[in-house]
Amino acid sequence: MIMSDLKNDLPKHLAIIMDGNGRWAENKGKNRVKGHAHGVRALQEVVEEAVQLKIEYLTLYAFSTENWNRPQEEIGVLMKLLVNTLRSEFEKLLENRIKLKVVGNMDQLPNFVQEELRYVVSQTQNNNEMTLTLALSYGGREELTNTLKKIAEKVKNNIISPEDIDESVINEHLYTRGLPEVDLLIRTSGEKRISNFMLWKIAYAELYFSEVLWPDFGKEDLHKALICYQKRERRFGKTSKQLIG
Length: 245
Ligand code: FPP
Description:
This protein is of the alpha/beta class. It is built from 9 helices and 6 strands. It has a 6-stranded parallel β-sheet with strand order 3-4-2-1-5-6, with helices on both faces.
């Protein structure tokens, strides 16, 4: 398939659960953290390709609320890797006019990570070629819990009345507010789970599971997922006949 064909019917919002870093390293007899370092290479390749294809929104699950239960050493390495990657990729974000956004419970992240994220988010806020969102210290249930608390507070203070709560009010209070619905969700490494990712925004996402471990995932694998997505019929509850009509 040539690039121009691939570009025809792309997801507006692509989300990826980058899984398999640990297994990649273990398979090679290496420490798990080596897998994360190689995961950054895959991340660079996929972001670059998404820019080439002009995908508007790319969201990556980089660290879940459950990942805080991992060994302290691994968490420490991941945090440092994140900051180093933000620094090394900063110029590329500016050159490609990529806006960085972060979703999740930021308060839980170490200060040096929060500071770096705040800096890159503020420096890229006016970029408009692509929105790259990192889900960090993110959990879908935590997001919904936080959303409910914020809305309940407004109800308590008579800012919103319960009858006015609808899907758009919920949308406005999510960490992921401003992002469109996810069109395609890719998970690597052969696992077929959602793992608490973007629960509200994936309601009608097409799901694609790749056997490839994240550090080995490259642009050809991304193309395969996109071609598969393009063959799907997205009915959103309607019948095929209605769609044709
Ligand atoms: C899942 O693999 C991956 C993660 C928990 C972290 C993802 C991180 C990166 C791709 C690199 C660093 C991130 C940024 C944003 C610079 P796993 O460890 O769960 O793999 P396993 O299931 O094989 O153990």
